Amino acid sequence: MLFSTPNFLYVFLPVLLAIYWIFYKNPGIQLIVLTVFSLYFYAFGEPVYVFLMIGLVLANYYLGKACAGDGESEQPLSKKLLLCLAVAVNLSGLVFFKYTNFICENINALTGLSLKGISLGMPIGISFFTFQSMSYVIDAYRGTVKVQKSYVKLLLYVSFFPQLIAGPIVRYQDIEEQLENRSWSINQINDGIFRFALGLAKKVLIADSCDAVVNSLGNVEEGTFLLGQWMKVIFYTLQLYFDFSGYSDMAIGLGKLFGFDFPENFNYPFASKSITEYWRRWHITLGTWFKDYLFYPVLNSTGLKKLARSLMKKKKRKLARYLPNLIALLVVWLATGIWHGASWNFVLWGIYYYLWLAADMVFLDDFRKKLPKIAESFFSHGIFIVATFFGMALFFFEDNTLSNLGSLFGAGVCGFTTTDVNAIICQNLWLLLAALVLSVPTVPKLYSMAVRECGITPAADRVIKTAVSIIFLGLATTVMVAQTYSPFLYFRF
Predict the structure, then answer these.
(1) Dihedral of CA 348/369/383/209: which sign?
(2) Apex CA 236: angle with CA 234 and CA 241, to 5°?
(3) What SS3 class is residue 289?
(4) Which residue of 69, 190, 284, 482 has the fewest C-beta atoms within 10 A of its own C-beta?
(5) Residue 415's beta-bridge partner residues?
(6) Which H helix or E strand runs over 258?
């Protein structure tokens, strides 16, 4: 993938920025330039599937016009049917490429049939650009956005290369105005460069280093050891966070360089005190997407409204308060698990987090509030840390999921540890400590305090960020040239 090579940094991006800024007085040509380069960016890794994306956008362009609403709560049946068609069109490609083999395998296992799957590779980023396309049509139907009259602008919205492959999931309403009017400032460009460099450093210097540790622990020849299994999960958790949040930082930074403001996707999730708070901080754009386009529509469906009214008539107020929400939440988390991958471990992962969120909703949140402050902090962080790492274990162990989960509790292991496991951990203890410190907002808070106490001016702040950006870019480039670069983890989702 072009994104994963130094050529992106020192050829593709500088050429694009130069051409883009040559036409700074002509925003229309700028958008065409961005669209052409974005399609080339995707075609570099997916030469055939770029036509799938172009066709999907074309379908949404006409379907969005056909089913567009006027903001009224109820739309005519014809527009509802067109919306259903649009959703089916968008999901058909995702289901075909991502879930066909999974469906065939499970039908064969249940029935003894020999259905053949497909041998086609999954288009990179299909889960992300499918959701972006759907959000445009749904919002057009609801009347919350204006129908886009320019196919090129809609194509750019979906194909814009910074966020195309792994998010953040940018909804049309986020950049509707920016497609027409964009503004720039020195601070914005400085922030964009710094944010991009920070994201690249997260990926190359931390996430890839954690990946190397996970692989080393997996290659221990003596067998499976309890400490080794837990350390694999811990390093994988840190790898996934720095990998995915690093990509989001790079995307947000690049967006700023072209005059676009993308929504935040991470807000130091490991600083959370509960699973509910964690999911408000992790992959924020996916969470808000499911909340607005699945949770509330299910919750406000006729069936659940009738259920709530029926329970209220029977004076079961607590049940009426929680049951509809729990049902809608279950639908969301089954969908969230399946969205991440065509494997049963992802379904289990979705159910696992549903149970934690349901517990938070029904009794854990109230229980925490009744505890003394010190006990509440200890209880909240303790439960959160254990729950989070075990949840990541479900995400990590795609093969032999149950046996691998059992090994975290001592089932089938050869012992607690071995010399090789100890050596790997000792060699990478500095990495573990650095990753843990950088995964919480300690450094930004210290810098903000220094800015306030030392009276650092905005001009000095820009100089500091520029210097740090140069250091990050230099270190990341050195590492990319010197060793094998591993693709972003969310490319496969």
Answers:
(1) positive
(2) 100
(3) helix
(4) 482
(5) 225
(6) none
Q: Alpha-carbon distance 265 to 244, whole Å?
A: 9
Question: What's the one-letter identity of residue 443?
Answer: V
Has residue 302 got a pLDDT over 80? yes
313-356 confidence digits (pLDDT tens): 777 777 778 888 899 999 999 999 999 888 898 999 999 999 99
For 78, residues 6+ apart whose C-beta sits below 8 A from its C-beta are: none
pLDDT at 89 over 90: yes
* Ramachandran angles phi, psi of 343, nearest 5°: -160, 150
For the chain, helix (H) and strand (E) counts, in that order, are 25, 0
Distance, in Å, from the CA atom of 447 to the CA atom of 468, rounded to the nearest integer, reads 13
Instruction: Give the position of tokens 């400085």.
Output: 190
* 225 backbone dihedrals φ, ψ, rounded to 5°: -125, 145
Cα-based angle 241, 247, 252 (whole degrees, multiple of 5): 120
H or E element, residue 43: helix 27-45
The whole-angstrom separation of Cα 143 and Cα 147 is: 9
Distance of CA 14 to the CA centre of its chain: 27
The token duo for 274 is 């509960």
Q: Which residues pair with 225 in a beta bridge?
A: 415
Q: How far apart are CA 288 and CA 294, in angstroms?
A: 10
Supply the pTM of this predicted model: 0.92
| CA–CA dist 163, 255 (Å, integer) | 8
Closest CA to 197 of 466, 486, 491, 485: 466
- In degrees and rounded to multiples of 5, residue 23 shows phi and psi of -100, 35
d(CA 434, CA 468): 17
Contact 58, 136 (CB under 8 A): no
DSSP of 139-201, one letter per residue? HHHHTSSPPP--HHHHHHHHH-HHHHTT-----HHHHTTTTT-----HHHHHHHHHHHHHHHH
Which residue numbers are catalytic? 340
Q: What is the 3-state secondary structure (H, E, C) of 336-354?
A: HHHHHCCCHHHHHHHHHHH
Could you tell me the two tokens for 438? 């950088």
Lookup: tokens for 93:
């490609």
Residue 112 pLDDT > 70: yes
Rounded distance between C-alpha atoms, residue 64 and residue 112, angstroms: 43
List Cβ neighbours of 195 (8 Å cut-off, separation of 6 or more): 249, 250, 252, 253, 256
Helix, strand, coil % (nearest 5) of the chain?
75, 0, 25
What burial letters (b/e) apply to 21-56, b meaning 16+ CB within 10 Å?
eeeeeeeeebbebbbebbbebbebbbeebbeebbeb
**What are the two backbone dihedrals, phi and then psi, of residue 247, each rounded to the nearest 5 degrees?**
-60, -45
DSSP 44-96: HH-TTHHHHHHHHHHHHHHHHHHH---S-SS--HHHHHHHHHHHHHHHHHHHH
The two tokens of residue 366 are 């109230």
